[in-house]
Amino acid sequence: MRRLEDFDVLILPGVGGAGPDHWQTFWQRAFPSFRRVLQDNWELPVYSDWALRLSDAVNAAKKPVVLVGHSLGTCLTVRWANENPTLARKVMGAFLVATTDIDRFEGKGGTPATGFAPVILKPLPFPTLIVASHNDERVSFERASEFAKAWGATLADVGDAGHIGSVAKLGVWPTGLVLLGQFIASLSAAQGNQST
């Protein structure tokens, strides 16, 4: 069974960078070893810039990597993993929360993001847990289920939790921590050995 200490955990926020009320920020405070992948522009995201920062962070990691993405951070994870298969071998798993359906928004005035669409519907090269809500305004539960199937991911249903972000005022989000702990424990030691 794997433990949190076995991994470098990289936090991937969405638009705005996960402010002080966001569970990702609470998790970083609670676990100082969690590192946020910083971006130059949180308000006008450009995929190529964000992907470069993610590549740098994965390259710099000393241990196998677990990605913890929210919203646009999930879109970044999926596209980056498909475009960087060699580097993605260092990633042991991805915990993706509120997987935004970027195809509904990019280029249509619904998001300031550029270059993240279309959603790639191919299996991800590492174990993935998708955490989805039934009343998320950025993705329907049915579409999140389609993503899970296409990516070979497990789907966790958290009921009616909106976009599972700052607005929800989740604090440290105990439910999410339990899901993350279970996900981390499920990652096999063999996967970690393959990355070294």
Helix content estimate: 25-40%
Bulk shape: globular
Based on the coordinates given, report the CATH architecture: 3-Layer(aba) Sandwich
The CATH C-level name is: Alpha Beta
Structural class: alpha/beta
Number of helices: 7
- Write out the strand line-up for the largest beta sheet, numbering strands in chain order: 2-1-3-4-5-6
Number of domains: 1
In CATH, what is the homologous superfamily?
A: Alpha/Beta hydrolase fold, catalytic domain
Beta strand count: 6
Low-confidence parts lasting 5 or more residues at pLDDT below 50? 190-196
Write the layout of secondary structure elements.
Elements: E1 8-12, H1 23-30, E2 35-36, H2 47-60, E3 65-70, H3 72-83, H4 85-88, E4 91-97, E5 128-132, H5 141-151, E6 154-157, H6 174-186, H7 189-195
Parallel strand pairs: 1-2, 1-3, 3-4, 4-5, 5-6
